[in-house]
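subagent[fold] <- orchestrator: predict structure for attached chain, return tokens only, no commentary.
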Amino acid sequence: MNSKQDPKQEQYDYRDNYFKYQQSILSEELGTIEKTIARLDDAINSNKNWAIPVWAGSISILLQNKALYDYILFTAAIPLLFWFAAARAYYHQNAAIYRQSKISEYLNSDKLEESFREKRFVDFVVLDVMGVQYHGTEEFRKSVNYWRVLTYKSIAILFGGMILLSIATWLLLMFFIP
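subagent[fold] -> orchestrator:
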């Protein structure tokens, strides 16, 4: 028996193992994307849950002393900061969702069949959870837009309402209540 393997067989094993490794990495990437989306969802909800008591507590402290009424207007900055933080988390979540959609698009394309024939992913980058490779594209900018997420109803109504209530409270105390 010859102890040396045929070079073609050795190359085939390498490509086969390499492709299997890429497949496992892609599978892990999909799991990581799901976890990232869930964690960002938790962060967004936590952000909202902290914003309300911090803001309300600030107003209630200022309402205890008439000399501090002038500062109530500044409580509008509290929900504004929380709003920006929530929007940033939504931005990152949308980037992960965008990458997930690109993976789905690839897995349902003819490129996947070609990848199996060639034993490597053809025209596809593995392990890019946040879709960094797409950041410069027009499609990404349209789908994942920081300024657009600022207008999501789930945060715009909450934080915008808190800002308006801060302003309304200040106006009421400054001009209508002696």
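orchestrator: received. Logging for downstream: The two ends are 104 Å apart (CA to CA). The chain has one domain: 28-176.
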